[in-house]
Please model this.
Amino acid sequence: MDYKSLLINMGFPLLASEIAAGDIALPFFVEQNPELYGFLPGLIPLWRDNGRMVGYWKHWFCRRSTTIVIERPQVEYLHSEIARSLDQLLYLACFDDIVSEDGVSDELRHIASAISIQGLDELNELYEDYGDDKACLMRLDVFKRNPPFHLDSSGYKGDFPNKNMIFSKELLTKTCLTEFDENLKPQVSTLEESPYWLKTDDQEPLFYQLLEDSNFAGAWMSLNSNGWRFSDAKKAMLKLAEKANNPTFSLLANFWSSLPHEQYGSY
Model:
C-alpha cells in the first residue's frame, strides 16, 4: 500500500493525501512527498520543512483528538501543535508565503483554488495591517472556532499538553513524553501522578510489560516517548498491532515498520 492510500484508508481528507503525495504542488518553502523515515509512529507526515516534519498527530486506544504538529528531531523529537485542522494549517502556510513574498504572488493565487483557500485577499490585508504577527489570524473564522494554543491560550479547546493544563493522573495517562517541551518535561517526569513512560529513558521493557497487561493505550504512549532505538520501536509497533488486532492500526503499523527509520538511530 502506498502512502496516499494509507491516508485515505485512515480516514484523512483526500486533499491531505494529495498534498502529502505531492499531487498538488504547494508554492511554500517546504519539501512535499519527503523521504518517509525518521519520524515517530504517531506522526502522519504531510511535508518536511527545514528538516522538521509537519503532519497529523494521531493517538490510538484512548480518547485524544487528532491535531497537526511539527516534529523537531533536533530537539529530542519534540512535537508542538501548530494547527487544529488542515484548513488552519493551509491558511498558516499561505500567510507565511504572503509574508515571505511581501504580498500575494500569482503562484499562490493559482494554487489557492486547488487547496480550497478563499481568503487570500483577507490574509493579505491582515499582513498589511499587522505585519508577520500570526495573532492577527484570530480574526478569521477558521481560527476563531477552534484556535490552536499558540494563537489563543485562553480560548483553547484542544487536549494537546500545554502549560495551562492541570496535570491529573487521568490526563497524564493520555500523553507521551515527546509532547512536553523543555519547560514542562522536568515537571511531569517528577510528578507522582505521571505514568512510568513519562519518567524513564528506557521504554522497551516497560512497553512489553504494558503489552502483556493489554494496556494498549499505555504501550502506544510509551512507543511515542523518548527512550527508543528506531530498530526496536519498529518491532514493538508490529507486536502492538498483532495484539491489538485493529485492522486500520495494522495498516499503519505495517507501513511505518517497513520504513528505514533506523538510519536516524534513536529518539
Q: What stands out?
A: The beta strands are 31-32, 43-49, 52-57, 67-72, 78-83. The two ends are 26 Å apart (CA to CA).
